[in-house]
Design the sequence.
């Protein structure tokens, strides 16, 4: 269990009797330490042996999804109670799921019919009520008008009145026109167009009366709530009736029969109300039965779902196996860690025993030149750091894993840019909330941002702890300094401190024991002092981490037995980097220790421009001029040392390795196919010197230029640290202290709220993300490119723990 290098892997062949194959794959899935190779890659999914079983599992998965949708609609989530004891056979499960689906579909179909009848009766009742109001009001108005006309005729007693009355009496009742009518409901949004089309189609020979229904009505056909109007259309003639019925059908208007007799209307309303009550009772009973059925399914849903997914994944894996010549055994090949050999063999023996097989499975290790997959044994703490590395590229088999060093260096470089122990405590409290409640969060579905934060909770924990540490070094608590480790070393020249801002302070005590002296904060020399400190510290950290990267490349080369990389890559790279920037780091440390006023910019620039000139006041130690000339010459020698020897030595090694292979046996000359294959082999193994040389040239130029640019890139530590400190100081001085100075409670509360929002939004969220991304770049580019190939592939074992949510 070593995180520095991936676990030793082995290619294994398993020969499994057919009768124990299913059980064997199931036990290996429970173990989760065997990655199967697809031995049937040339076959399509439909040509494979277990395609029918996979289709069956897919059909069962469809039924389970149907059950889940029905439970979701009914508001019944699947039970979290999980019972492993009563495992059901796949055939019995298939039958049971089919029966449950058929029953549920029948219940749904009956419920839909009843619901449609209920909605139709509701509409019918509305039509009876609204249309009844039409007829009642019309009859009342007609009776009133008739009475008024009679009174008027009697009162006037005109000459024409007897003649008119006589004409009315003579009129034959059989010749009077009988008007028909159609009643129903039409969607309100279509009512205007409905009325217009009716008028045009019948040339105005209809009378339409509409009434608005206040509440939305559930449409019997669509099952959706729709705003509707009740209508009554009066017409004359059969042709007009046919036109009206077709228009109603086209507009989705539901027509219902209606009697103009008041007694019949009252009787129909009574009958409809009675049927509605009966239907309501039947529908409620059906829904209760449906909910009971869904609740029963919900108790077993998770177990059935997991079992179907397991079976489907088992058959998918069985399809990757090939038959042996006897067709009685299945042959599997795959990768497994060396430490898992005994566990896999025990699983094979257990499967043979449980399946009552007469022959046991055979486990044998194969020798191969194929590159094995990369597997690191991580836990919940180290996995998030390993994912940071894997996002750049998966480590090649058994190359040095940067994840080990990332656990410390990543949060530390983040903290260098984020150093404030007040902000660090806020981050610590936030991540402790996730860690304390991790069991709850891990069992529920989270949003994208929350899930990402929860997954990296231990990274944030380390970042917070290191931020508190660097914040104590910078002596900043929301930009406010504290004398935590003793009194300041500096004091005023006189008790009144009248000249403190002009003349300055003097050292009155021993040096402040830990971190920056609190008296530096708020002085005129604070910014130049902290700038110098953080800039030099950034260079030291950068050179140290780059040296670590080059040293790790040595361990890689030694592990893989690559002497060429040690002699012609590691050594010249160490010489070049430390001749320039290692020397600069030495000068910084000497200057700090001696308190010299030497200008390091001048020293480094003139080391190249005029290395033989005297250093004068910029000399930090005896022999510095001679050392600079030696280091400069070493740096110049290191460049061709990196560039030229390695390609020529690789060419020489290739020639020695393949010496004598250009000669073929005499009898093979007569065989054109063998000659061709022999020729292809040499073409494949041909050494392209120009390609190797260009690759080495690019690598050397990249390192030489990268040594400068990467060192400059580490100055982002200084820049972001300064920006964080200044932003924090601005929020404190210009928001909190400014609000305090007004001596007003309301202004103070507003100032505190603005300060908290600015601190959380800008410093704890945006600055955290910014520092995180910059630390990520320093690891991926400046650190890992010195030694990390990242061209491997992950070990992906067959494991039931990794079965996806939707295994289509």
Sequence:
């Amino acid at each position: 269990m070593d995180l520095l290098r991936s676990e030793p892997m082995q290619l294994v062949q398993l020969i499994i009797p057919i009768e124990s194959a299913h059980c064997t794959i199931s036990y290996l899935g429970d173990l989760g330490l065997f990655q199967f190779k697809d031995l049937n890659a040339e076959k399509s999914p439909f040509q494979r042996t277990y395609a029918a079983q996979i289709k069956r599992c897919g059909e069962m998965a469809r039924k389970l999804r149907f059950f889940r949708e029905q439970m979701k609609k009914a508001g019944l989530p699947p039970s979290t109670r999980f019972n492993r004891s009563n495992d059901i056979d796949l055939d019995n499960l298939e039958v049971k799921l089919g029966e449950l689906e058929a029953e549920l579909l029948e219940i749904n179909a009956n419920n839909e019919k009843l619901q449609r009848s209920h909605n139709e009766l509701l509409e019918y009742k509305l039509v009876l009520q609204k249309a009844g109001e039409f007829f009642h009001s019309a009859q009342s108005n007609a009776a009133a008008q008739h009475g008024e006309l009679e009174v008027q005729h009697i009162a006037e007693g005109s000459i024409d009145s007897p003649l008119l009355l006589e004409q009315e009496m003579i009129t034959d009742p059989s010749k009077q026109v009988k008007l028909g009518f159609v009643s129903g409901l039409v969607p309100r949004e279509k009512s205007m167009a409905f009325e217009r089309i009716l008028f045009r189609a019948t040339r105005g020979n209809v009378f339409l009366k509409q009434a608005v229904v206040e509440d939305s009505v559930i449409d019997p056909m669509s099952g959706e709530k729709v705003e509707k109007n009740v209508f009554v259309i009066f017409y004359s003639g059969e042709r007009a009736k046919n036109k009206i019925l077709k228009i109603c059908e086209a507009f989705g208007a539901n027509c219902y029969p209606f009697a103009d007799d008041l007694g019949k209307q009252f009787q129909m309303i009574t009958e409809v109300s009675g049927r509605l009550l009966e239907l309501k009772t039947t529908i409620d009973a059906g829904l209760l039965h449906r909910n009971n059925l869904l609740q029963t399914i919900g108790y077993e849903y998770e177990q059935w779902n997991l079992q179907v997914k397991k079976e489907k994944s088992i058959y998918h894996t069985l399809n990757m196996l090939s038959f042996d010549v006897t067709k009685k055994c299945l042959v599997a090949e795959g990768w497994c860690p060396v430490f898992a050999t005994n566990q896999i063999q025990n699983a094979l023996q257990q499967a043979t025993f449980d399946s009552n097989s007469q022959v046991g499975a055979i486990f044998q290790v194969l020798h191969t030149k194929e590159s094995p997959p990369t597997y690191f044994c991580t836990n919940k703490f180290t996995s998030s750091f390993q994912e940071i590395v894997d996002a750049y590229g998966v480590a090649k088999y058994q190359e040095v894993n940067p994840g080990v060093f990332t656990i410390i260096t990543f949060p530390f470089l983040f903290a260098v840019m984020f150093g404030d122990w007040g902000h660090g405590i806020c981050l610590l409290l936030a991540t402790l909330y996730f860690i304390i409640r991790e069991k709850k969060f891990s069992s529920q579905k989270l949003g994208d941002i929350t899930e990402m934060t929860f997954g990296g909770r231990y990274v944030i924990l380390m970042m917070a702890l290191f931020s508190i540490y660097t914040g104590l070094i910078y002596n900043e608590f929301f930009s406010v300094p504290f004398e935590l480790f003793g009194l300041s070393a500096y004091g005023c020249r006189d008790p009144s401190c009248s000249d403190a801002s002009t003349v300055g302070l003097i050292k009155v005590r021993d040096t402040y024991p830990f971190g920056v002296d609190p008296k530096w904060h708020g002085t005129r020399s604070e910014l130049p002092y902290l700038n110098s400190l953080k800039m030099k510290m950034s260079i030291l950290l950068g050179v140290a981490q780059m040296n670590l990267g080059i040293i790790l490349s040595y361990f890689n080369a030694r592990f893989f037995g690559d002497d060429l990389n040690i002699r012609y890559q590691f050594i010249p790279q160490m010489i070049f980097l430390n001749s320039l920037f290692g020397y600069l780091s030495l000068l910084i440390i000497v200057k700090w220790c001696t308190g010299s006023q030497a200008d390091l910019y001048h020293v480094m620039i003139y080391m190249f421009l005029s290395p033989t000139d005297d250093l004068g006041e910029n000399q930090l130690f005896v022999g510095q001029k001679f050392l600079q000339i030696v280091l400069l010459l070493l740096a110049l020698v290191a460049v061709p040392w990196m560039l030229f020897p390695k390609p020529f030595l690789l060419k020489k090694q290739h020639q020695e390795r393949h010496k004598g292979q250009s000669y073929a046996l005499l009898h093979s000359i007569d065989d054109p196919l063998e000659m061709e294959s022999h020729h292809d082999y040499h073409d494949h193994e041909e050494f392209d010197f120009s390609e190797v040389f260009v690759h080495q040239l690019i690598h050397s130029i990249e390192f030489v230029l990268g040594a400068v640019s990467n060192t400059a890139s580490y100055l982002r530590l200084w820049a972001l640290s300064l920006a964080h400190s200044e932003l924090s100081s601005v929020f404190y001085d210009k928001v909190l202290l400014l609000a305090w100075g007004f001596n007003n409670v309301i202004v103070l509360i507003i100032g505190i709220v603005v300060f908290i929002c600015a601190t959380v939004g800008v410093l704890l969220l945006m600055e955290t993300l910014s520092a995180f991304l910059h630390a990520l770049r320093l690891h991926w580019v400046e650190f890992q490119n010195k030694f990390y190939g990242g061209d491997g592939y992950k070990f992906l074992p067959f494991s039931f723990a990794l079965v996806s949510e939707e295994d289509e």
User: Anything to note?
Assistant: The mean pLDDT is 86.
